[in-house]
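Work through this:
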Amino acid sequence: MKNRPLLILVAAVLLAIAFTYAYFRWNQAPESLAQKDPDFKIKANTLLEEFQSNNAKSQPLYLNRILEIEGRCESIENQGDSLFFVYIGSHNGASVLCQLEKGHDPLPPVGQNIRCKGLCTGYDDLTGGASMDRCVLVNFP
């Protein structure tokens, strides 16, 4: 009976440590893909063509994989303070949408050929375009 308050105190401290660890792991920013090797290097137009011609085959091949794509920067869209979308390539009116990592500076000029590395998040049947997340520009000043 004398050890009961001590046991409760130890359990409370262990629970506090566990919850603190879980909180920081849950809110940890994802690892940057800048230093990771890509699973596939592909032209943006080729990627779009593969998704548009055979989505059932391309989806399992590219989904959640690190891709390095190359193509013409079609447009840049700003969403808030530091969220930028770069549209690369064009095939049948669709582009690859690349969401750049926060704090990416400088941005490429529209019309320039660029290479971008990111995590493929899938294909949108409605727009006909592919999308990538956590992107970084490769070999760009």
Observations:
- The chain is about 30% helix and 40% strand.
- The longest strand covers residues 66-78.
- The beta strands are 40-43, 66-78, 84-91, 94-100, 113-124, 129-138.
- The chain has a mean pLDDT of 87.
